[in-house]
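Page 37, continued from 36.
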């Protein structure tokens, strides 16, 4: 399905108004409109192609979910700072960690903790209706009820609803941490906080998981129940990664991010399973290439995992030589890609919905594969 450019252009203009929170259109008439329906159907086809191609019953459910997402994603992008917003993915999170945990910030104390609070649908609706631009509370309640059920349904489609629920459900907790840590302070204010020995902190919430980096002053003035880890002494695990600090003769030098040992073991087991499947050798070779490329795309922003990547590449090549090489046609390309990490940073835009995006950039904001 080719992108409906005119419909997407109309939707982008209306999403900009939603983000700004001024003269926001009524969603009751906006979401069912032809342009939004066409754009939502395109997104469903883009990210759930099999359900659309086979005409499955789930196809209409996914299209309906994207109609609601087209409305809520610009709102949470603008109104929910400090959260895992639509233009964030794994590489963005790892880049954020490398920027906020560094000698420049001195924020060597870290915590990754799950909030004990459970999200309630009534509280979720109340949180959403306090945001600027939410003009139709009845429609918002119905929409969030639909997304709430979708988020609990499981499968990849549930990510569409969970993105909205996770962003809006814990807004009071975000505000409490802001009062405690002043994590939204800008650079001039942060300099004052350091000079006054109040300390600085950085905050990110992914669903119910809170990631906080703080310096010594800020960590000492927080609640006693926050289990701070001094990364200069003890590594910490976040998502699939292990954080530690490289220390030199002049003190802490930089944050190191590599893969947790369990992730590497799972990758080796998957490689071994692929090459020993009961399928043809060319099929196994293609499956192995696909897995390695996917693994690289997911984890390549962990720059200090390069030795782990190198070991996995060598293991994949040895397994290919052992199980596949003799069974492959002589004239077939038998090369296995060498997976690599990158030292690049991914710096997200504050709000991409405020500008005109190319269609491929815009559609990536609605990807259900960001984590």
């Amino acid at each position: 399905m080719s992108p409906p450019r005119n419909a997407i252009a109309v939707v982008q203009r209306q999403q900009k108004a939603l983000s700004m929170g001024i003269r926001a259109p009524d969603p009751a008439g906006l979401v069912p409109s032809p342009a939004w329906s066409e754009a939502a159907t395109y997104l469903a086809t883009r990210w759930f192609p099999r359900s659309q191609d086979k005409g499955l019953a789930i196809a209409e459910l996914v299209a309906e979910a994207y109609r609601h997402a087209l409305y809520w994603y610009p709102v949470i992008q603008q109104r929910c700072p400090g959260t895992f917003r639509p233009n964030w993915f794994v590489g963005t999170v790892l880049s954020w960690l490398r920027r906020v945990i560094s000698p420049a910030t001195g924020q060597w104390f870290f915590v990754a903790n799950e909030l004990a609070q459970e999200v309630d649908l009534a509280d979720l609706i109340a949180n959403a209706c306090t945001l600027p631009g939410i003009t139709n509370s009845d429609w918002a309640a119905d929409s969030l009820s639909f997304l709430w059920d979708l988020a609990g349904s499981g499968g990849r489609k549930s990510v569409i609803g969970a993105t909205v629920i996770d962003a809006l459900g814990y807004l009071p907790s975000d505000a409490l941490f802001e009062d405690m840590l002043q994590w939204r302070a800008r650079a001039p204010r942060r300099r004052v906080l350091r000079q006054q020995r109040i300390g600085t902190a950085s905050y990110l919430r992914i669903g119910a998981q809170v990631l906080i980096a703080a310096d010594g002053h800020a960590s000492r003035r927080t609640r006693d129940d926050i289990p701070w880890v001094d990364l200069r002494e003890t590594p910490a695990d976040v998502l699939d990664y292990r954080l530690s600090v490289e220390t030199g003769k002049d003190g802490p030098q930089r944050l190191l991010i590599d893969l947790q040992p369990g992730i590497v073991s799972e990758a080796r087991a998957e490689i071994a399973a692929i090459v020993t499947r009961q399928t043809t050798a060319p099929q196994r070779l293609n499956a192995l290439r696909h897995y390695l490329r996917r693994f690289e795309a997911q984890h390549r922003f962990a720059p200090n995992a390069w030795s782990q990547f190198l070991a996995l590449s060598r293991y994949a090549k040895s397994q290919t030589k052992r199980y596949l090489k003799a069974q492959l046609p002589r004239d077939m390309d038998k090369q296995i890609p060498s997976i690599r990490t990158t030292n690049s940073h991914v710096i997200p835009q504050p709000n991409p919905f405020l500008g005109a995006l190319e269609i491929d950039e815009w559609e990536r904001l609605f990807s259900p594969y960001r984590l």
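The CA atoms of residues 233 and 245 lie 8 Å apart. Flag for discussion at group meeting. The chain has three domains: 5-88+118-169+348-364, 95-115+171-259, 261-327.
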